[in-house]
Design a protein that fits this description.
The complex is a heterodimer of chains A (755) and B (165).
Chain A lengths: L1 H9 L1 H8 L7 H5 L15 E4 L2 E4 L2 E5 L9 H13 L6 E4 L10 H5 L11 H17 L9 H28 L6 E4 L2 E4 L3 H5 L3 E3 H4 L32 H6 L14 E7 L7 E5 L1 H4 L4 E7 L2 E6 L2 H8 L3 E4 L8 H9 L7 E8 L2 H7 L4 E7 L11 E7 L2 E6 L4 H12 L6 E5 L13 H11 L6 E4 L2 H6 L7 E9 L4 E11 L1 H9 L24 E9 L13 H18 L4 H8 L3 H13 L10 E10 L2 E12 L2 E12 L6 H21 L4 E2 L2 E2 L17 E7 L16 H13 L16
Parallel strand pairs in A: 3-4, 8-18, 16-17, 20-21, 24-27
Antiparallel strand pairs in A: 1-2, 2-3, 5-6, 6-7, 8-11, 9-12, 10-11, 13-21, 14-19, 15-16, 15-18, 19-20, 22-23, 23-24, 25-26
Helix pairs in contact in A: 2-7, 4-7, 15-16, 19-23
Chain B lengths: L1 E4 L2 E4 L8 H8 L18 E4 L2 E4 L11 E3 L1 H4 L7 H8 L9 H14 L5 H8 L9 H30 L1
Parallel strand pairs in B: 1-5
Antiparallel strand pairs in B: 1-2, 3-4, 3-5
Helix pairs in contact in B: 3-6
Classes of the chains: A alpha+beta (755), B alpha+beta (165).
The complex binds FE2/S2 (inorganic) cluster (FES) (2 copies).
One FE2/S2 (inorganic) cluster sits at the interface of chains B and A.
């Protein structure tokens, strides 16, 4: 297999990004690239240049290797390849590609180190670089952490450039012309300077060259196109998935259709973690369309000939559930978090400057408060679903998911099959928001399919199941004491407590033991670039109870609210302008710029009509500084959210229109949770089950937006999450400004009405 | 049971209380209408019955008494409906899962009210949830679809009057 050998040699180009500076972690040991997963599926005469691009007679395929869940990653990743490959975005086909450890995500791990995001000291830089090695070692193919753009920026462009130069090399050999006389242009290799040559036929399309590529050895490292010459990147693109999505033809996981397919649903013990004693399906089995009813883990499954027959029958199964270990009332869950503010539960103290305690104790003007946020469900529009087929020793899975390599290892565990006999098709997702990192639904689909060997089974959860068996954004509480100075705070002692997402998600469920502090607990609380002479941020880990997980922006979703509401309280206490106060506290240039920009956009400081109010908040998360201003009106019927302004800094903007969409989308997501999002538990049972009692923001409540994208940061950053955290505090601060009412507990509809 | 969907006749044999959505999706492989909640709270399953938007997840198939149009019947890649064109122009969709329903609601609105105000749009569209929060672009797209429908009507009228002359 000369082909394999060549490709392995060539992957140094992609691999070299990931392994820079990794010596301390056994650089040589991990250097061996992962086997190219595409070779297995290549048809005759198809040649994989790198794991990210396929060029064949049939055209150019780009392997996105990150799942499309609405964030536009297919388009942006393909644009990176197209840029270097000198083709139009429309000329490439984007596929997700197989589950493979070769597609590990280094950027997601990079944020998981305890250095403030603006800390570019040599030590921080080195540790960030080193994390790329363990990410590769663990082979985590993750779509999350707003990392796809950052992770792909080098990999995809280098892949495209490698493909381009290999094509040039192939043409050079074919024509016996030096390669510096040739260039790539519009999907063709052409002679550089003479149109004469072209007329003599020295032009060949990439697809026509595909046969020759196997014999080409690229000897130099391809050069990347400088930003000043970009044709595609930096400009708004038409999304590659848009036409399918406006015609109803885009295929989501739930749309998979296979011959002879059966339809299933499940009902797990509503009391989370509780098991099942017995069940009686006698009546349910009589229902039309039912094929089979059986126990599945801590619940039951119904298989039928139509999804609705399964939904209908499963309601009629009588089940005797056993209870679980979760505290019996929601109040008890609150108390569990409250009780974790102790040395015993201290998880991290990454920031500890000056003498907070001394200053706070000595001052007669210490401001203090307690804040609280509830559990939240992800509530992606597409309920969880997965299709599985076990046939002749092969297991095939079709599902939207954010972590295919984890799904595959779980699949191997359940089926006893070797991973090479397991194929995972990652389909488009009707939203992820972190929920589809966890493959429980895929595991269930496999277990069901095992009973129907040879026949595909699609498992669809009801909305109720989806809401009541989520892995939730944790409940969290913060307490602070602070002393305000003339213009800005002189002491801040902020404590934030919540159950650990990484212990629950990575430790308990993904089988990756998380050592040391959970960075999510104090994420975006301790690492904000504010200068305060006495500044301490402590994270406390609440003992595990309800399963918790990553929810769009993770720990920043609560800590942004805590930190920025606190700053507003401090500013107000001395009648200081909250925007000016933040500017006085921040020297990090990109952060200052987003604050100034949002001030400009919102006409900050101008007179507002009677009963209107504005609030500002800032948050640095996932390396992206975001500042937001919300404007509300206090009407007779309640609070009306009128306008939202946001300024973000993504370093280098790949696709402005898509970034803008992620900003208002993320902001609306944050507003929805702040206004009305809450999951409560009684006897471990979620008390909300569907959109009637776990509602979200709708057209009539969505504000008008003005957004500005800045590029002062030094690195390309992703924007799927960072716009979410400032939404809640900006809204709370606006409501205070309009009404004088300080809301310290979410959701806000417990305290005010929204219209 | 006979159904007319996108101008095609279909014969189905299902429980009479099966919601139309599941007849479309699982019996007839018409996958544009989506399942989001099953209780008429999200609008992902919106289709037209005789031109009116209905939530097919909560509409028993036996109650269907007319022609059904799904997103597949509204327009296709080669001949897009004005609303779909506007959706493309404004790059509305993110995950896209709610968008078939959004587009069907918007098309029904414009059919009834060719120049909707912001208030009209809010009222007609608030039954359609979008967890990705695409509302600002939905609103903008509805407005440009309204304009383009006007313009094409204007063209038709002018064209007619030319012929009359
Ligand atoms: S699925 Fe019909 S309204 Fe939600
Ligand atoms: S586009 Fe994702 S739910 Fe609307």
């Amino acid at each position: 297999m000369g082909k394999v050998a060549k490709i392995t040699r060539r992957t140094f180009l992609v691999g070299s990004v990931a392994i820079a500076g990794g010596a301390a972690f056994g650089f040589w040991k991990y250097k061996q690239p992962y086997k190219n997963p595409l070779l297995a599926d290549l048809q005759d005469n198809e040649m994989a240049l790198t794991p990210y691009v396929i060029i064949s007679k049939h055209g150019i395929k780009v392997i996105a290797a990150r799942a499309e869940m609405g964030q536009g990653t297919y388009t942006t990743l393909a644009a990176m390849v197209a840029e270097e490959l000198m083709v139009d975005l429309a000329d490439v086909e984007v596929i997700h590609g197989p589950a493979s450890k070769a597609y590990y995500n280094a950027a997601v791990m990079e944020e998981a180190v305890p250095f403030a995001q603006v800390n570019t000291s040599a030590l921080a830089r080195n540790v960030r670089e080193f994390t790329k090695v363990p990410a590769k070692f663990l082979g985590m193919q993750i779509t999350g952490g707003s990392s796809s753009t950052a992770d792909g920026f080098d990999k995809m462009r280098i892949a495209g450039a490698t493909a381009r130069d290999t094509l040039i090399e192939a043409a050079a050999i074919k024509w016996g012309v030096p390669n510096n006389q040739l260039r790539a242009q519009d999907g063709h290799i052409v002679a550089v300077n003479s149109s004469e040559r072209e007329s003599q036929g020295l032009s060949i399309s990439y697809t026509d060259l595909s046969d020759f590529l196997a014999d080409v050895e690229l000897k130099h490292e391809p050069k990347l196109t400088p930003q000043s010459q970009w044709r595609i990147l930096g400009k708004s693109q038409f999304r590659v998935d848009m036409l399918g999505k406006v015609t109803g033809t885009a295929e989501f996981g739930v749309d998979v259709e296979l011959p002879n397919m059966l339809h299933a649903t499940v009902r797990m013990n509503p009391s989370l973690g509780g098991s099942i004693r017995s069940f009686d399906a006698a009546q349910a089995e009589q229902e039309r369309g039912v094929k089979s009813i059986f126990q599945l883990d801590n619940g039951i499954a119904v298989v039928a000939t139509n999804t609705w027959y399964a939904f209908n029958a499963i309601k009629k199964v009588k089940v005797d559930w056993s209870d679980n270990q979760i505290p019996k009332t929601n109040q008890k869950l609150v108390e569990l978090v409250q009780a974790s503010f102790s040395d015993e539960h201290q998880d991290s103290r990454f920031r500890d400057e000056g003498d907070c305690e001394g200053v706070c104790n000595d001052s007669s003007e210490t401001v203090s408060a307690e804040y609280q946020v509830p559990y939240l469900a992800h509530a992606a529009m597409e309920p969880l679903n997965a299709t599985a087929l076990l046939k002749e020793g092969q297991l095939t899975i079709w599902a939207g998911n954010q972590w295919p390599t984890l799904a595959r290892s779980k699949a191997a565990e359940i089926s006893g099959l070797d991973e090479k006999n397991i194929q995972i098709h990652t389909l488009m997702m009707g939203g992820g928001f972190g929920r589809r990192l966890e493959p429980v639904y895929i595991e269930q689909a496999i277990k069901i399919a095992q009973r129907f060997e040879g026949q595909p089974v699609k498992l669809t959860w009801t909305r109720e199941e989806d809401t009541m068996h989520d892995h939730y954004r944790p409940m969290a509480i913060a307490r602070f004491q602070a002393v305000m100075g003339e213009k800005s705070p002189i002491a801040i002692d902020l404590k934030t407590a919540s159950p650990s997402v990484s212990a629950s998600q990575m430790g308990e469920r993904a089988g990756i033991p998380a050592m040391g502090p959970d960075l999510a607990i104090a994420q975006s609380a301790w690492d904000q670039p504010y200068a305060v002479p006495n500044y301490r941020v402590t994270g406390y880990r609440t003992p595990a109870s309800v399963p918790v997980s990553s929810w769009r922006s993770v720990g920043a979703s609560q800590n942004g609210f805590f930190h920025e509401s606190m700053l507003d309280e401090l500013a107000v206490s001395r009648n200081v302008d909250p925007l000016q106060m933040r500017l006085d506290m921040i020297s990090h240039m990109p952060s200052r710029k987003v604050l100034e920009a949002v001030g400009e956009l919102s006409n900050w400081g101008s007179q507002l009509p009677e009963g209107h109010g504005r609030g500002i908040a800032y948050c640095l998360s996932f390396g992206v500084p975001v500042a937001e201003v919300i404007e509300v009106a206090n009407t007779n019927n309640g609070i009306k959210i009128l306008n939202a302004y946001a300024a973000v800094d993504v370093g280098t903007a790949m696709d402005p229109r898509n970034i803008e969409a992620q900003v208002f989308g993320g902001l609306n997501f944050g507003l929805a949770a702040a206004m009305m999002g809450e999951i409560t538990f009684e006897r471990g049972i979620a008390q909300q089950s569907n959109f009637h009692n776990y509602n979200s923001i709708r057209m009539n409540q969505s504000p008008d937006f003005k957004i500005r994208i800045l590029e002062n940061g030094d690195k390309v950053k992703g924007i799927g999450e960072p716009a979410t955290p400032p939404a809640a505090p900006a809204l709370a601060n606006a409501i205070f400004n309009a009404t004088g009412k300080r809301i310290r507990e979410l959701p806000m509809n417990k305290h005010v009405n929204f219209v | 049971m006979k159904l007319v969907i996108n101008n095609n006749e279909h014969e189905v044999d299902v429980a009479p209380d099966m919601p139309l959505l599941w007849v479309l999706r699982d019996e007839l492989n018409i996958k544009g209408p989506k399942f989001g909640c099953g209780i008429a709270m999200c609008g992902a399953c919106t289709v037209h019955l005789n031109g009116h938007p209905i939530r097919s997840c909560s509409f028993p198939v036996s109650a269907v008494n007319g022609n059904i149009t799904t997103i597949e019947g509204l327009g296709s890649e080669s001949s897009l409906h004005a609303v779909q064109k506007a959706w493309l122009e404004h790059q509305v969709a993110q995950c896209g899962y709610c968008q078939s329903g959004q587009i069907m609601s918007a098309a029904a609105l414009l059919e009834k009210n060719p120049s909707p105000s912001d208030q009209d749009i809010d009222t007609a569209m608030s039954g359609n949830l979008c967890r990705c929060g695409t509302y600002p672009r939905i609103k903008a797209a509805i407005k440009s679809a309204a304009t383009s429908i006007h313009e094409s009507e204007l063209e038709i009228t002018q064209h007619d009057s030319v012929e009359e002359v």
